[in-house]
Amino acid sequence: MPTTQEFNLLNNRFRNFYPVVIDIETAGFNPKTDALLEIALITLKMDKLGWLHTASTLHFHIKPFKGSIINPDAIAFNKIDPFNPLRGAISEKLAIKSILETVKQGIKIEGCRKGIVVAHNASFDHNFLMAAIQRLQIKKNPFHPFVTFDTAALSALVVGETVLAKACKAVGLTFDNNQAHSALYDTLQTANLFCELVNRWKCLGGWPVNIKNTNTFLKN
């Protein structure tokens, strides 16, 4: 049985997974054909008392990969001009490799086994990330191939909301709709939301798991 100090380590909190918060803005809904235009990543850390916090941030504007599709409705929605030189966009290869290297380093430092994507409606971001990794023929992918932590599902459980803005407001976080659909802003809000949900569960006595208390609650 782990000690209290061991329970306060990041690698013990999520079954040896290293959670990484990600948001991706794209030029459509098809991860195999539509361009990935922007990606942001926030790593997480636990303090000595076991409270979860945000750590480092990466953010890239990305040039559409060769032959990719740009859906006019998608860019009208996220207000990204893929070919604006002022974006400072870099290649998909450089962005993804930088992100994967950061995740690998975090996994090593925290003593974790695998990275896991944390995102709001996580299947969307996970699918685009996996498609990019496959497209770039990267063999050593530090992320779990199909497991994710979805803050939409967690928010539905905890506060009865699935929309990011509403979930943030429900837990007492501010949300600026004018900044929404920016990968960096949405990642920051998702990271703050995830930390709040995890820490709230701990505050309520849900972590570390107390089997005796759980069984008593179920009997009642």
Report a brief summary of the structure:
Its EC number is 3.1.13.-. By secondary structure, the protein is of the alpha/beta class. Helix content is 43%, strand content 20%.
Describe this structure in words.
There is one protein chain. By secondary structure, this protein is an alpha/beta fold. The chain has one domain (4-204): Nucleotidyltransferase, domain 5, CATH 3.30.420. It has helices spanning 4-7, 10-13, 72-78, 92-110, 122-135, 151-159, 164-170, 183-203, 211-219, and strands at residues 17-26, 36-46, 52-61, 114-119, 143-150. Strands 3-2-1-4-5 form a five-stranded mixed sheet. The protein is globular, with a radius of gyration of 18 Å.
Please describe the structure with a list of short key phrases separated by commas or semicolons:
220 residues, alpha/beta, Nucleotidyltransferase, domain 5, five-stranded mixed sheet
Question: How are the elements arranged and paired?
Answer:
Elements: H1 4-7, H2 10-13, E1 17-26, E2 36-46, E3 52-61, H3 72-78, H4 92-110, E4 114-119, H5 122-135, E5 143-150, H6 151-159, H7 164-170, H8 183-203, H9 211-219
Parallel strand pairs: 1-4, 4-5
Antiparallel strand pairs: 1-2, 2-3
Helix pairs in contact: 6-8
